[in-house]
Amino acid sequence: MTGTLVIAGLGPGPAVWIVPEATAAIEAATDLVGYRPYLDRIPERPGQRRHASGNRVEIARAREALTIAAQGRRVAVVSGGDPGVFAMAAAVFEAIETGEPSWRDLDITVVPGISAMQAAAARLGAPLGHDFCAISLSDNLKPWQVVERRLRAAVDGDFVIAVYNPASKARPDAIHLAFALLRGRKAPATPVAFARSVGRSDERIVLTTLEDADPSVADMSTLILIGSSETRLIARPGRTPWLLTPRSYGGGQ
Amino acid sequence: MTGTLVIAGLGPGPAVWIVPEATAAIEAATDLVGYRPYLDRIPERPGQRRHASGNRVEIARAREALTIAAQGRRVAVVSGGDPGVFAMAAAVFEAIETGEPSWRDLDITVVPGISAMQAAAARLGAPLGHDFCAISLSDNLKPWQVVERRLRAAVDGDFVIAVYNPASKARPDAIHLAFALLRGRKAPATPVAFARSVGRSDERIVLTTLEDADPSVADMSTLILIGSSETRLIARPGRTPWLLTPRSYGGGQ
Fold this sequence. Notes:
By secondary structure, chain A is α/β, with parallel strands linked by helices.
């Protein structure tokens, strides 16, 4: 079987944040497979086939990509962010796990990319400068108790918390429940940032505190960062403060 | 004050994983500041000054960069990985916090990059496909009790765990203590990967289990991934299995 499949990420949006390996894989592909808005960001190339799909059909999309690759073609699955972080890589390997045995012989490459928490962190300063965790609220395949358990653990460990996919249609109250849990366990002055569409024309960043945060500003394009007990602001005259989680812990220098 | 400072990451090593914004910032800089081995990866440019430094002097390096930028120059601080993740961004903002008030007027940009856990995940399959945390063992500014607290919390939350900087000279037993803690709390068959220098000529990946892992294979170029209870292998005939943490939890499909 000579087909190849590359899972490549477009990062959060702008071309300047796409790694060259992803660009090259997309250019070299005979077939592009992806969520339609991601494919729409890629210039058309003569002879290159496009297989666009809607949202929330990740496994079907992965199966389609594997089927095409198994026909001997060079397929690029186009993902947002880093395909490895809450994105298409897991869907492809899940599809392989339950799919055609021959798919396991395919030559499959995952190309890493910039994930939303990294873009948000870059804009804000250095909020991920120390230990952190990433939790997705979107997945309606995950029992709510698991989300609660992870949020509690993230507080117990005093991690900086990156919340992905805060506004699921299947679970619209999730972000409000999550904030209620966090407010009962963390200091009211804990810095919180809502970073929407970072790097795109509709970028919007709200820097606030756990006490004052309005979780309803978060949509599916928003990444939320919640500080640890060490995360703090650095004031700047006339500009938004920087957000810093220092490398030391407990006041050590 | 017209000086600018860009904090740009080279990713884990290969040029194909450096985002174009970082490449452009490095090319446009009048002055490059960084740990010597990172600067050595960058082609020399006529007229561009280099300020190389040794390891473990991050704050001094950050102060030097800020001092040069405050003289009106275009400075690029060159970091490994993603500058925002256990790298130079936090050091620069810490230096600003305690440094010259005028440094807060500087135009400072953080450019996100590919961090070691992402490169490791890409090589292995999709181990970061669901909730995860990142913990650094290197920092001798962090009390060991904080590391233990975070490892316990990571187990309680059943996160996939990415361990950065596992082999600190200041704390050589750290990785052994960490594995002892994890072995007392997680299933012996939990997948564990040691991913060393991913993307470079000396890349070496060891895929094993918590029970069989030999923590002494980890050096400062190694990123360790420890699975959640859902992380599993996908066998391939004649090749290393893929590692998958599925998007669903608790057997849901």
